[in-house]
Amino acid sequence: MGMITNSLTKKIIHSLIIIIAIIGIFSLSLYFTQYVADDEGAQMLVQQFGYIGVLLVSFITGLSFISPVPAATFSPIFTAGGIPLFITITLAVIGTMCANFVSYFVGRLGHNFTNTHYPKIQQKILSLYANKKELLPYFVFGFAALIPIPDEVYLIPLGIIGVKIRDFIIPLFLGTIFFQTITAFGFQNIFGLFLN
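and the corresponding structure tokens:
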């Protein structure tokens, strides 16, 4: 009984830390958006380094195991600095796709390791893929576009079992565009409510 309670307590604490971190990041983003909107020097700084900044932020947030927050959370900061929303979304898609490629190639590099140390897991993933191969494009699009979980959850296993990137690149790209666009417009509207 004590172990179950201890495990449950750890899960609750872990969940609370994640929620507090997300609220903190959202609050900081809100603060910086207001700051950039009100300060000409900050606007010039965002315009000067903004494009690289959007790419860097979207790459880091695209590696979801580092940051569980979508890149679009920060889009109001960039638009407040004078970068058009369309360009912000485009750069966010590019940065996120670069992060997705890193995740996939981490899986590719892990192929031999998992084959040697965890062959049963690799066989289960391969068997699942072989039985549902035709659903892969829909699966990848659905996860990339609609489900806010780390892309590494499916990209690393796809790399591990050696699925060719050409088999899912288009749905991954389209899903990423959809997710970044919807999220960016959503955060623009949410921040608009707080800042007006």
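(Above: one complete record from the training split.) The CA atoms of residues 144 and 161 lie 19 Å apart.
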